[in-house]
Design brief:
By secondary structure, the protein is α/β, with parallel strands linked by helices. The strands form 2 sheets. It has an 8-stranded mixed sheet with strand order 7-5-6-4-1-2-3-8, sandwiched between helices. The protein has a two-stranded antiparallel ribbon with strand order 9-10. α1 runs parallel beside α4 and α9 packs antiparallel against α10. The longest helix is centred in the last third of the chain and has 34 residues. It is elongated and about 85 Å long. The structure holds uridine-5'-diphosphate and magnesium ion. The site of magnesium ion has 5 residues, from loops.
Length: 327
């Protein structure tokens, strides 16, 4: 069986249509499947719609989270609840086109353990931020200490071993495309054209995107920290040159007041920047130390039997996936 994990936050306009499209695509693969909708604390009728879909279609599994945990939290919960021999992860807004699913499954059948869907083109011209994505991927590729494929988001297929490896990873501030590259295994790539969202607005706020980008960089690179060292070297060199040239040229101190003030501001700004960079890493270390779960599952509804997720740890994979079946 193949699991398709879809994080859902306020997607009532897309759900019914999306369900049909994914079902049609999975029928084409010739494999059995389950469709795991993760309700990430939706405030609209998404949850009722999912339960309605499940009443009609036994392929549907609904994972109901305790609140809105964000894209990565929802995907982590879906990965922990999925039971398939392979798991496809995709967004529920048609940006990851369901027509590509048979190609992902083919890649897996041909022996790939991780099939990454890579964007050949994008159709999100109306968003300024979307134009920055390609730039972000290039910056990440440059700074990353580990090679991460360009232009690949969460969309793709992982086989059971890769899913278990990712589930066993304990880090909280997750960048899935990076973790997927990091676990290794035999990889294959499928190219696709990224569409615009079918209906509704993007659900990720500007700040959460910045956080995601920062997670990506901090979890795969120490280079920003090394940048602080570079700043300190530059500032020390500049200071030495200044001191020496002041002594040699015998410029009266009062006439270099402006220069000194400017230097203090510049150095002050650099120090604060370095503190900010340190803070980004330190905050993430704090997240790790607290060991809070990635997300908390309220209930998992499998078709035909009402099932309740036993554990709210949402973290310890064995505990979290132990399911009590209610006859
Ligand atoms: N999503 C989610 N939780 C959130 C925000 C988004 O589960 O807090 C879901 C959303 O319903 C969609 C997917 O994650 O299926 C991607 O979200 P969105 O399309 O808003 O992100 P974008 O494609 O704009 O980056
Ligand atoms: Mg989207």
């Amino acid at each position: 069986m193949i699991s398709v994990v879809v994080p859902i936050y306020n997607e009532e306009e897309n759900l019914a249509h999306f369900h049909q499209a994914v079902t049609a695509a999975m029928v084409k693969t010739g494999e059995d499947w389950e469709l795991v909708y993760v309700n990430d604390g939706s405030r609209d009728s998404s949850f009722d719609l999912m339960m309605g879909l499940q009443a009609e279609d036994p392929h549907v599994v609904v994972v109901d989270l305790s609140r809105n945990w964000g894209h990565m939290g929802a995907i982590s919960a879906g990965l922990r609840s999925a039971r398939g021999a392979a798991v496809i992860i995709m967004d529920g807004d048609f940006q990851d086109p369901p027509e590509v699913l048979p190609q992902l499954v083919n890649g897996w059948r041909e022996g790939a353990q991780v099939v990454v869907a890579v964007r050949r083109s994008r159709q999100e011209s109306r968003k300024i931020l979307a134009k920055l994505f390609p730039l972000f991927y290039r910056i990440l590729a440059t700074v990353s200490d580990y090679p991460i494929p360009l232009d690949a988001g969460i969309f793709g297929l992982l086989d059971r071993q890769a899913v278990d490896s990712i589930n066993s990873m304990r880090e909280r501030n997750r960048y899935l495309p990076g973790l997927r590259a990091w676990v290794g295994y035999r990889n294959a790539v499928v190219l696709y054209d990224r569409r615009d969202r079918a209906a509704g607005d993007g659900k990720l706020s500007f700040l959460s995107r910045i956080k995601y980008a920062t997670d990506a960089i901090t979890s795969f690179s120490y280079k920003p920290l090394r940048l602080c060292l570079l700043f300190s070297c530059l500032a020390s060199c500049a200071a030495m040159v200044l001191v020496i040239s002041t002594v040699i040229s015998r410029v009266p101190v009062h006439s270099i007041g402006f220069g000194i003030a400017a230097a203090i501001f510049i150095v002050g700004a650099l120090i604060l920047l370095c503190l900010g960079i340190l803070g980004e890493y330190l905050g993430r270390v704090y997240d790790e130390v607290r060991q809070r779960p990635l997300s908390i599952i309220n209930k998992v509804y499998y078709a035909s039997e009402v099932t309740v997720a036993a554990s709210n740890s949402g973290f310890d994979s064995e505990e979290a996936t132990r399911i009590y079946r209610v006859a």
